[in-house]
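Tip: read the tokens left to right.
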């Protein structure tokens, strides 16, 4: 079993530097171009199913991938981004000033934000969704378009890192992160592979 995790293309929220979470921020023109590039890269692969987070930026990227493969797009809500509660829509500086966000990767930095999803719940949600994909498609290759924070948690789950850890992993727009195996024995094969974007890559300051 192989799950190819794809981060969405650049969104307007990325450009604005805001905490997007579950906000439905659309892709920028660059993001749409990135989606076409990753779709072209995946078009020749033996993919059986294309999943995507239902959030607009991931769904639009997933539509490009699914169209290139001639497959329907299937929603996977468990692979949505971290829900940041009241901080969504604020810039990182604004949220830090208002709620005193913590900078460490070994703690729930948004614990003081009203209605934010606890880090432990986020990790377990993502881990359960990834495990389900690994076990649902034995001997198949699937694509799941998701988010930077979600993919980082998926990697942490595969590596068996403590659930309280939010790993410091860079996940570029439309990069590929590949997981193989089963839920019982997953293996990380590739991380943040964005060679299809090359010089057209848009660098953003935060993953979410």
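Filled-in amino acids:
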């Amino acid at each position: 079993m192989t799950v190819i995790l794809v981060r969405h293309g650049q969104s307007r929220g990325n450009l604005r530097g805001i905490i997007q979470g579950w906000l439905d921020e659309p892709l920028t023109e660059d993001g749409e171009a990135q989606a076409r590039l990753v779709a072209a890269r995946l078009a020749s692969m033996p993919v059986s199913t294309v999943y995507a987070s239902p959030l607009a930026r991931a769904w639009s990227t997933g539509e490009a991938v699914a169209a290139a493969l001639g497959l329907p797009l299937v929603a996977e809500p468990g692979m949505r981004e971290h829900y940041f509660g009241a901080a969504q829509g604020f810039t990182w500086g604004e949220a830090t000033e208002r709620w005193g966000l913590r900078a460490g990767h070994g703690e729930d930095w948004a614990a003081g934000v009203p209605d934010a999803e606890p880090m432990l719940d986020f990790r377990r949600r993502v881990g359960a969704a990834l495990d389900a994909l690994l076990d649902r498609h034995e001997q198949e290759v699937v694509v799941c378009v998701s988010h930077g924070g979600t993919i980082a948690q998926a990697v942490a789950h595969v590596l068996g890192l403590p659930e309280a850890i939010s790993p410091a992993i860079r996940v570029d727009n439309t990069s590929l992160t590949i997981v193989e195996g089963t839920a019982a024995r997953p293996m990380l094969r590739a991380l943040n592979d964005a060679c299809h974007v090359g010089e057209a890559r848009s660098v953003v300051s935060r993953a979410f």
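The chain is about 35% helix and 15% strand. The helical segments are 12-16, 29-42, 56-69, 92-99, 119-136, 148-159.
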